[in-house]
Amino acid sequence: xxxxxxxxxxxxxxxxxxxxxxxxxxxxxxxxxxxxxxxxxxxxxxxxxxxxxxxxxxxxxxxxxxxxxxxxxxxxxxxxxxxxxxxxxxxxxxxxxxxxxxxxxxxxxxxxxxxxxxxxxxxxxxxxxxxxxxxxxxxxxxxxxxxxxxxxxxxxxxxxxxxxxxxxxxxxxxxxxxxxxxxxxxxxxxxxxxxxxxxxxxxxxxxxxxxxxxxxxxxxxxxxxxxxxxxxxxxxxxxxxxxxxxxxxxx
Amino acid sequence: xxxxxxxxxxxxxxxxxxxxxxxxxxxxxxxxxxxxxxxxxxxxxxxxxxxxxxxxxxxxxxxxxxxxxxxxxxxxxxxxxxxxxxxxxxxxxxxxxxxxxxxxxxxxxxxxxxxxxxxxxxxxxxxxxxxxxxxxxxxxxxxxxxxxxxxxxxxxxxxxxxxxxx
Lengths: 251, 166
Prior knowledge:
- Chain A: InterPro entries: Aromatic_CoA_ox/epox, Ferritin-like, Ferritin-like_SF, PaaA_PaaC, PaaC.
- Chain A: It comes from Mesonia mobilis.
- Chain A: Pfam families: PaaA_PaaC (PF05138).
- The complex is a heterodimer of chains A (about 250) and B (about 170).
- Chain A is mainly α and about 250 residues long.
- Chain A has a single domain (about 5-245), classed as Ferritin (Up-down Bundle), CATH 1.20.1260.10.
- In chain A, about 65% of the residues lie in helices and about 0% in strands.
- Chain A is built from eleven helices and no strands.
- Chain A has helices at about 5-25, 35-60, 70-75, 85, 95-115, 120-150, 150-165, 175-185, 190-210, 230-240, 240-245.
- Chain A is globular.
- The termini of chain B are close together.
- Chain B has a four-stranded mixed beta sheet.
- Chain B folds into two domains: about 5-90, GMP Synthetase, Chain A, domain 3 (2-Layer Sandwich), CATH 3.30.300.130; about 105-160, Single Sheet (N-terminal domain of TfIIb), CATH 2.20.25.
- With about 170 residues, chain B is an alpha/beta fold.
- The interface of A and B includes residues 45, 48 and 131 of A.
């Protein structure tokens, strides 16, 4: 496949981790307890580490002298191709956990499949990241169970969050043109193959958490095409502040 | 157990042994298992290191420390970060595990025991202070990406546990 499409495919995976990492980073010093605060920011750090590997690879593939920072900080909103799920704000702890839970289960299965890619660099990143994401998935699943099977209030809140965020889950499996090209080349992950397992795994945790799996007819999409929710602009203005204010600055 | 051959030149090994992880100063990068090769190529020492965790902020510092240590010994060095094969806690040497324990960080258990410990099923992580096995996990995520937080139910001391990655 051509380099431009491969870069697009890589960004489709990397942007999810970047934006979710940024959302979790917002909780630094604001977690409900010290341990959870540290856990959330640890997960954020893992995601940023993974993103750096993807962006460094994309920079290496790109024709012009792009660096990893260009991909992270100097794109406009429409150029980010993360799914809508990961840009949703940290409304309350239940909401943050539900978002993490719905993403982690997808992320784990995606990386698991990506280990069979024909692209050696993506295989290396997948193998490395998978070890980290196993911990993320365990953390968010444990919390879903704890909140669901917890007090009346915690159950109400986590159920509300799952209900609200469920409409973004279909987009995880959507395929862009770059995705289709990557799949054809044996590089990309055929998301149809992991969807069944995803629903199965998520349902199992929800059941154990005594929560209801939402029944929805309508799903929301757009992020993968660069059409984001209103929350994205605020997130980017925060994340890109330094590079926009002092262009080209270095630490 | 992931067996991986490591190529480290005899000349470079003692120098690299002096470089340590900035977060765990008692542990040399050789004993931590992050140095995957160290060889001369046209008079330049080429060092390949691999991160413990993708986001490990210590990697940049380790890279700089390696260059500084080699420069002091009179060598020009080039440091590359490699991802494959992915680092595993199995690569920590016996000496390294002892250094961790002495420093107050419980060394990683074997994979199956680790899973049980982190899921709170069994208490197998020994307290680094009083050696009691009556410990509990406080959080899967600790002070750095590679550690979990435990506490001892006997002596009440909190301690870090180096998470197992295989």
